[in-house]
Design brief:
heterodimer, A: alpha+beta, D-amino Acid Aminotransferase, Chain A, domain 1, 3 domains, four-stranded parallel beta sheet, 9 helices, globular, B: alpha/beta, 7 helices, metal ion binding (chain A), ribosomal S6-glutamic acid ligase activity (chain A), ATP-grasp (chain A), RimK family alpha-L-glutamate ligase (chain A), nucleotide-binding (chain A)
Amino acid sequence: MRIGCFAETYNFKYKEEVEALKIFEATAKSLGHEFEVTGKDILDRMDEFDSIFIRATTDPLFTSYVVSRIAEERGKKVIDDSESIRICSDKIALYYRLKKNGVPIPRTFPFYGDFAELERITEKIGFPIVVKAPNSRFSLYVEKANDFQELLAITKRFLKRSKAVILQEFIPSNFDWRIGVLRGEVIYACKYLFPKGGWRIRDVINNRVAWGKVRAVSRESLPEKLKKVALKAAKSVGNGLYGVDIKQFGEEFLVIEVNDNPTIMHGMEDAKDRDIYERIISALVE
Amino acid sequence: MIIVAEKEGDDNLEPPDWFLSREVSEAVLNLLGDYRFHTKGYYVSLHAEENKCPVLPSVKNALDIYRAPVFIERIKKAGLEVPEFEVIPRPKPERVVMLPLNPFSKNSLKVVKSDSQYYKFFKSLSMDYHYPVVHVKVEGRVEEAIMHLSEVRNGEEEKKRIAEKVFEIFGVPLGKIFVERIDGKLRPFYFMPLSKEEIDIDLAIASYENWVLRRNIQL
């Protein structure tokens, strides 16, 4: 089988990501398949491949979505499928899915700009409140409001970019679980630690952007309850490849996000469970 | 049946903000005209779907229809004649119609008449060379058809036939179809949202009623 991997220039920024792409290629070859990393010209070369693996950032407004849709229209296997991109790239759609499927989440409300409603929502959530733009990623466009004035300012600013935002209860923690799920199975797990003084993996500390560290945890050692919550959250989106972000609050696990196209960097996400490459390649060729 | 539209003074229509604030359980006709990702029109359809209500348009079709390669791929598959197109990551000056691959701006179809114009258009449509651009090889004249479901106001029969087919394929009620007129034929290649001023709610509702009636008769 010929696998086309769609990547963009930023996928080559970190050596750990480049190494991961090389391992994907080597793994595919060792399993008897071809694997070619290609750029935007993939849209004109689609018929050269049997399946498509998207590593470029996914969003219905980006090229990756067109790549996914054209691949689907031509009957190819594709990770990420367009439905997963659509749900995971929109925190509003994701909220609907998680709620509908009974996935445990912090108290959350979509807000469409009717400011008469805002006070009622704050009474239900309580401060601080996390405000998320629907297309937030890597903690960008995710901010914390400590009082009503801050909340007003943030929501007004975010609503210039979109007609909706998510308002969510703040759950204090020092890290987020990141659980990698593929076709209904946990394939890796990490703790995404927050930088010192921060409350999210990418934060601004003393006016400088700071990233937290990644600590891999063997999937076998995860609490059963955590795995169950992660699988339920992933299933509410689809049957593809996901990174589920979860807050641990005592013995409780609350899903913050489900991400399609999860980051895979060599020495980080693959540090404990090294067969993730083989599993993903197998999913692309079966 | 709930009709969501932004028109004051008509009790039969539901404003989007009211619709989005409640749970719904009926079929929904979304007449907001712009269904692109993150618009209010998009969220009305999403709200209906996630409440398990049949809705026009579906969010999947709303995302597909504004992306030129997906639009062309699907209407070609359904049997409509279309012009050739190519997705171009780097500038390659040609006398073509240029379209954005990524729908960040509304009025963005460009007809190239010179090389200098080409480079200017490429820069703006690719958002400073960040995204690819679509080249459509149009030899005939570019025309548009403002579509209200399967109706085209003051439109010729052939434009109505195209609108009907596009509506059948995507179920997107309102929009502007761009077509190439060549050798007496019309070949569609692009779809854009309607502005509020371009929407005729009465025509859209009448067109919906006709469509339902025709489907019932056929059934």
